[in-house]
Amino acid sequence: MKELSKLIPESLKEETSTPETTKTIPSRYNGKNVAEIEKEEKTTPKGKEINSSESGKKSNAKGYDFHECVTSLNKKGKEQFGDHFIINPADYEIVFKLLVFAIKDTASAARFNINLSKGILLSGPVGCGKTTLMSLLNNFIHQPNRHVMKSSREVSFEFIQDGYEVIHKYSRNSFNRKGENTWPRIYCFDDLGTENSLKYYGNECNVMAEILLSRYDLFVQKKMLTHITTNLSASEIEDMYGNRVRSRMREMFNLVSFDKNTNDKRS
Asked: pLDDT digits over 198-212, tens only?
């Protein structure tokens, strides 16, 4: 069993009454700013690094090491998004929960109330890094279970062009096939809430609501997972998509949230 053994604070190894949101992830990076971390990463010898080709393996006998996970994410982030990229220490708890989900660490998942049979709903303010983290997370996920990033706005544009077949594309036709084997295709619908309700031949349709409702049915029947990033609150989701969608989302997703005061990393 894979376990992020060094990701779990000693305080979490015993039952306490401390609220989950106040617990932090200890590491040699805590209390250091971004410049100090970058300098240390350049000068400190590393252990074996986890990369995409080794994502299903342990980095050492004790399991995944948090330092190596952060180092790997920073390396991949720089390759994908530019040399300015670095994981902010303030985001370590978010990163921890996402990694626990990605590597299927059952012990840590139980402790943090993460259901490995559900998807991830990653919420937070604009520019906090939701899309970036979900993109990088694929490096730690076994190939058949990796998700396809899809902008919710792009889905709505597809609907304008192709109509209701788009709903089927992302629901009942959302399966991978290899020979005689089929398995559900996992999507991460990015920036849920940035799309608008649209009309197709005069008929108005809340496209993402219909897709989520359809994928919920397939989640129940076929264990089809879905991930979402959004800056909407729970009440805003209900206002935009209705109580029926919000109710089903509770069953479909593990909620992982950035603090509402998280700074825009683009600025």
From this structure: 554 445 678 999 999
Measured CA to CA, the distance from residue 222 to residue 159 in angstroms comes to: 25
The class that CATH gives domain 117-267 is alpha beta
Strand pairing category for 253-257 and 119-123: parallel
Other beta carbons within 10 angstroms of residue 22's beta carbon come to: 6
Question: Which pLDDT tens digit goes with each residue over 58-73?
Answer: 332 246 787 888 999 9
List, in sequence order, every residue forming a beta bridge with 259; answer none if it has no partner: none
Q: How many CB atoms lie within 10 A of CB 252?
A: 22
What are the domain boundaries of the chain?
Answer: 1-114, 117-267
CA nearest neighbour of 1 among 103, 119, 150: 103
pTM of the model: 0.77
SS3 69: helix
Please say if the pLDDT value at position 16 is more than 80: no
